[in-house]
Amino acid sequence: MQNYGVFDIIGPRMVGPSSSHTAGAAKLGLMARKIAGEDVKKAKITLYGSFATTGPGHGTDKAVVAGILGLAQDDPRLRYSMLLAREADVDATVELSDEPVDHPNTARIELEGADGKKTLLIGQSVGGGNILVTNVNGLEMKFSGEYPTLIVRHTDVPGVINMVTLILAKEQINVAFMRVFRQGKRGGACMVIETDTPVGERVRQLIKDWCDPVTEVFSV
């Protein structure tokens, strides 16, 4: 017998009409903003599958832009996000693609900050307002954003995982879930570590300073 959560029955707190096409879309935009780590000046959003075909009628385009602006899924200003983007001098464009994808509610979000730094996120709205991030800056991964999440990009060499988890243990940060993804042996790799408490800037810097092959550390 299948188990159902409360959000499967009544849905999350949100500005409607759809938990998948609206609430999940806003979460994807907000996650992309968090990963970018700064105010966004330019956003290119590509919607696929049902996001592209029926999403505009549910405000999917507006929801993603709202998230990029830092608005939560239940913010009443969500429906005015395009106007708010113009007022904030954020150049936001939305494209609808008929390219086939693995999941019907898929968005590709490309952001550019004031200093020219670029961030790419590809993710899915998987129902009930929940999301799954599948790619960040060209590296495949999977995480939901339901827990504080630490992402460590590094070179695939022995000892890096041990060093990162040792630092977390010394800092009394408990690991809830952990996955490791790599592009190939001795190539680019990524640790996605979901924790019980947020990982602050000091700990992120410790990881970067002490783990030689680490190239990027950020948390959301």
* Shape, principal axes of CA atoms: globular
Would you report the number of β strands? Answer: 10
Which value, in Å, is the CA radius of gyration? 18 Å
Write the CATH architecture name of the largest domain: 2-Layer Sandwich
User: What is the arithmetic mean of pLDDT?
Assistant: 89
* Poorly predicted ranges: 1-13
Helix tally equals 8
SSE topology string:
HHEHHHHEEEEEEHEEHE
Ends distance? 34 Å
The CATH class of the largest domain = Alpha Beta
Number of domains: 2
CATH fold descriptor of the largest domain: 60s Ribosomal Protein L30, Chain: A
Describe the protein in words.
By secondary structure, the protein is an alpha+beta fold. It folds into two domains: 6-137, D-3-phosphoglycerate dehydrogenase, domain 3 (60s Ribosomal Protein L30, Chain: A), CATH 3.30.1330.90; 149-219, ACT domain (Alpha-Beta Plaits). The protein has eight helices and ten strands. It has helices spanning 6-9, 19-36, 50-53, 55-58, 60-68, 81-87, 160-170, 201-210; strands at 40-49, 91-96, 105-113, 118-127, 130-136, 139-143, 149-155, 175-182, 188-195, 214-219. The strands form two sheets. It has a six-stranded mixed sheet. A four-stranded antiparallel sheet has the order 8-9-7-10, with helices on one face. Helix 5 (60-68) packs parallel to helix 6 (81-87) and helix 7 runs antiparallel to helix 8 (201-210).
